[in-house]
Write a structure and sequence with these properties.
This protein is mostly helical. It has helices spanning about 5-20, 20-30, 35-40, 50-55, 65-75, 80-95, 95-105, 115-125, 130-145, 150-165, 170-180, 185-205, 205-230, 235-240, 245-265, 270-280, 290-310, 320-330, 335-350, 355-360, 365-370, 375-400, 405-420, 425-435, 445-465. The chain contains 25 helices and no strands.
């Protein structure tokens, strides 16, 4: 039978090797002799704070004995949340995720610990320690998977928000897993969950899902908005403060999402009708500063999208008006600028327009647009895909014009971006476009392309465990 070492034995061995008295070691650790004696003799359990002091006094790295702490004081004892809670926070500080995983696995057989672990997860999330929080949310969700509780739904929503990232295949899986739990959330939190789901499906270009979720969000938001403005609606008014946006935004944003879905399907007339709907917000009763801010945004989006849908319908006479509209908002590089330039390229490629002067005018913005980390689902998901798509449309435009140097520059950017996003469809479109124009490629670009394709291949071999028979 394997003997499990103990922290007490390690401490006792150290004290004897160094020839220290208990009082002397206590001075090094900032603890009195009685506590050290009780720990060494086994008459006293240990807190993580005391463990950290002992570890430091022994000259060892932080967290050196955390695995033993789990063995000695968590697995071998009835779970004590007064000991476990500070230990989990300390593990999160030191990024010791394996230790957190072990603790969760050791105690989550008992539903009684779910509420406290959920509280800890929420606190870790508020501190920005997302990976640590994720382990706790997953543990609680696994334990409560048959409970049909609101806490389970909140866990699934938190897991979704933490997991959504650059890999679009993973995002699709995360969205699919969240959908069945949305209805179990608080009625107000459902609105944010639906908004986030819609933005993920929008980035995946799954327009039927975008349309379905947007309609559901609009119906729920309309009910809540009506209740808010009925008499004796203080409870609803207080509940709406939990939302990340003013309540009316979810109604207007649903129309904006539906307009985007119609645009993607080529139904520009219906897209315009939805645009007129979210442009007309005279029904909004609030007058506060936040409301005015959002109403201004919707008015601005409606003006631009009205030009876009007319332009994409074939009314190229509005191109100059649209460019003036872009110029008026180009004093700062915001996350919408990329969308506006992308619309110009859609029209240019669809109707074979010469937009060289327009591209030249906005070249500094195209070259300097930098993605900034964000917790907002739209910025995290929709914008990166659109920036990759802009590279693709610019490549298409230049290559078909015979401007091969610029064309291949943007094509390589788009190819690499879509690989990062794990968007197989557009990644293959980029490969196909490269092969179509391969004869116009300079040797340096061919070499860069070949090395990139080989790297993708070898990465897939490594990831999937496929046999690699290369010498």
């Amino acid at each position: 039978m394997k003997h499990t070492p103990t922290i007490r034995a390690e401490l006792d061995r150290y004290i004897q090797q160094k020839g220290l008295s208990l009082a002397q070691f206590g001075q090094l650790a900032g603890m009195n002799r009685g506590i050290i004696s009780a720990i060494v003799s086994g008459n006293k359990s240990m807190s993580v704070n005391q463990l950290d002091r002992i570890t430091e006094a022994m000259g060892l790295p932080e967290g050196e004995f955390y695995d033993l702490f789990i063995e000695n004081f968590i697995i071998d004892h009835p779970p004590n949340m007064r000991r476990i809670e500070p230990f989990l926070f300390r593990c999160a500080e030191l990024d010791k995720l394996d230790a957190i995983r072990r603790v969760v696995g050791a105690i989550m057989d008992n539903l009684l610990y779910s509420p406290k672990l959920f509280e800890i997860a929420e606190e870790l999330l508020s501190q920005g320690r997302h990976e640590a929080a994720l382990l706790l949310y997953e543990g609680v969700a696994e334990t409560e998977r048959y409970q049909h509780s609101e806490r389970l739904a909140i866990c699934q929503y938190r897991i979704f928000k933490i997991q959504v990232g650059e890999a679009q295949s993973r995002n699709l899986e995360a969205a699919t897993l969240l959908e069945p739990f949305v209805e179990r959330l608080d009625e107000m939190e459902q609105l944010d969950a639906l908004k986030d789901l819609a933005n993920v499906y929008r980035s995946l270009r799954k327009w039927d899902k975008v349309d379905e979720i947007a309609r559901k969000m609009r119906a729920k938001a309309e009910i809540q908005y009506s209740m808010k403005h009925q008499q004796q609606s203080r409870m609803c008014d207080e509940s709406s403060k939990k939302l990340s946006r003013p309540l009316f935004v979810y109604i207007a944003y649903a129309d904006l999402l539906c307009s985007g879905s119609c645009e993607a399907k080529g139904d520009y007339h219906q897209a315009l009708q939805y645009t007129y709907a979210y442009a007309s917000l005279d029904w909004v009763l609030e007058k506060d500063e936040d409301t005015q801010h959002w109403m201004g945004l919707f008015q601005n989006w409606a003006e631009g999208n009205t030009y876009v849908y007319k332009l994409l319908s074939g009314d190229i006479n509005v191109l100059n008006d649209y460019v003036h509209y872009i110029i008026a908002s180009s004093d700062k590089v915001d996350k919408e600028m990329i969308v506006k330039l992308l619309n110009v390229m859609f029209a240019a490629n669809q109707y074979k327009l010469d937009v060289n002067d327009i591209i030249k005018r906005f070249e500094p913005i195209i070259a300097s647009f930098v993605q900034q980390p964000s917790t907002d689902m739209y910025t995290k998901q929709v914008i990166p895909e659109q920036y990759a798509r802009l590279g693709y449309e610019l490549a298409y435009y230049y290559l078909h014009q015979g401007s091969y140097e610029d064309g291949f520059k943007y094509l390589m950017y788009s190819l690499e971006s879509y690989h990062t996003l794990n968007n197989e469809t557009y990644y293959l479109n980029c490969v196909g476009m490269f092969e179509h124009f391969r004869t116009h490629t300079i040797p340096e670009t061919k070499e860069k392309y070949s090395k990139f394709i080989e790297k993708v291949w070898l990465d897939n071999v490594k990831k999937n465990g496929t046999a690699n028979h290369c010498s």
